[in-house]
Amino acid sequence: MTMTRLALAAALLLPGAALAQPIDLSGGGPVEVTATEGIEWRQNEQVVVARGNAHAVRDGVTIDAARLIARYRPRAGANGQAAAAQPGGESPMSGGEIWRLEAEGNVRISTETDKAQGDRAVYDMDQAVMVLTGRDLRLATPNDTITARDSLEYWSQRRMAVARGAAKVVTSDNRQITADTLVGYFLEQAPAVQPAAARPAAPSGPAIRTPGAAPGGAQGATAARRVPGEGSKLDRVEVFGNVEIRTEAEVVRGDRAVYSPVSGMARVLGGVRITRGQNQLQGQEAIVNLRTGVSRLVSAPGQRVQGMVLPSSGGENAPAQGGAQGGGRPAQGQGQGQGPGQGQGQGRTR
User: Fold this and answer.
1) Which segment of the chain is annotated as a signal peptide (predicted)?
2) pLDDT tens, 150-160?
3) What φ, ψ does residue 82 adopt, rounded to 5°?
4) Beta-sheet pairing, 294-298 with 320-321
């Protein structure tokens, strides 16, 4: 089977481009594209299309799909001498830059540590955002996995992922948070990068190469860089609508929540319901420790928290109420809440 290879070089000098970030294609440098069914250059449309097991690599980020579409435009300051400077004369994107990369059909995007998948992906270089749509949407890091039904966005410069529709994050220890919409913020990191003065200058245009030819300047530009995606870790997760947090012992539901993977703590707000077995507590705010499985229902000033604890379930299965721990006694009549407002806690047994 013949493999067609094309190198598309485009120097995108965007803010923060020197940082090696997870699944970040906006850092400039050449994009090497291969395909088994050929590569088509539509010069008038300023589009390059690769079909059949299309494979693209840029700065440590790999994209695999049935079809890849690279859209380019004239680069600011480009002149007519760009084509002549390229080996082999005029070629796609001579003096141009890629501004949009599209992947269709069984899309897989990966770095050394991070992976994303879907039926279709669009990467906007100007906004540094990737949008995945289709089935089985997934963004996986060594510590967490984010999935969605409708769309999954990754903003590489903002270090942010947005999952829409049946959004879920699963931690490495199998803790789960689901909601209608999920926004995840990743820890800011600055992996080692080769100094700009020592990096070879990015080519002003692409070069057509035969299989086996070395990518022009690609290896030199990435040799001293860490692979994008190294050390990706969620710092904070915000979820909205039909929030559900599951631990080994209980389920906590509410309208919205904020979760810190670093501390393992989650704060749930609005219509909170904590369920453990047949026991249930209700209120407007809860603090959940996903590592210990202990939840605390917090009462607001002037409000009561309510609970129903069945004696047959055993006191050890009752959720914590106020400041009590998860192994506390079943609620009996009126009990004092331990939350910030020192409100009344109310439970009843049957």
Assistant:
1) 1-20
2) 999 999 889 99
3) -65, -40
4) parallel
SS3 82: helix
| β-sheet bridge partners, residue 8 | 31
- Quick one: which of 253, 245, 307, 311 has its CA closest to 281? 307
pLDDT digits (tens, 9 = 90+) for 95-145: 688 999 999 999 999 998 899 999 999 999 999 999 999 999 999 988 899
- Percent residues over pLDDT 90 in the chain: 43
Residue among 349, 165, 145, 167 at smallest CA distance from 261? 145
Rounded Cα distance, 51 and 240, in Å: 39
Residue 313 has phi, psi (to 5 degrees) of: -80, -20
The CA angle 175-177-183, to the nearest 5 degrees, is 125
User: Residue 33: is its pLDDT beyond 80?
Assistant: yes
User: Is-contact 321 274, C-beta < 8 A?
Assistant: no
Tokens (6 digits) for 126: 């100007």
Q: How many of the other CB atoms lie within 10 Å of CB of 89?
A: 11
